[in-house]
Amino acid sequence: xxxxxxxxxxxxxxxxxxxxxxxxxxxxxxxxxxxxxxxxxxxxxxxxxxxxxxxxxxxxxxxxxxxxxxxxxxxxxxxxxxxxxxxxxxxxxxxxxxxxxxxxxxxxxxxxxxxxxxxxxxxxxxxxxxxxxxxxxxxxxxxxxxxxxxxxxxxxxxxxxxxxxxxxxxxxxxxxxxxxxxxxxxxxxxxxxxxxxxxxxxxxxxxxxxxxxxxxxxxxx
Length: 221
What we know:
five-stranded antiparallel β-sheet
């Protein structure tokens, strides 16, 4: 049933670029999911996810069927008092180095945490289609399964703790810089990798997020 959320994400992303998307996969009883995330159960427990599909806005707010884009658009692009920048590159030895910078206008807040994830898009795999006979679905009559269904924004690795690393007291206009590295597994497609960096509250809700393709230098936003 997960593609119903995929369709909602795609619809929302067409309306705004001011969102960071992370999809988390778990292999079921059928063929292994090519985007299965080994620590998925730890995330499920941390965020109270007990069934699939489950969608969250800003990490902690339930986004429920019919997944109205306006629930996301109402907060997308809202100004914050701090900004995030991402710089990354891949060495000749296929090592990914990521630098994330956070600058606060008024200093960090107690409980702030930095979350940095590595994502992969463009994964093609046959997808069970429970909506094949549902004329209201974008997947109507696409077959069951849908061949070579494209999965995007899949969580591959976490550079930080899954729920974030504490940001210690950072003064106003002081740059808080963190550098991470990863030996990229051979089965990742480097051309389809991207990074999401988030600053979250102590309750794990997101305060701001930034995205960048691997190899891209994304300035503060």
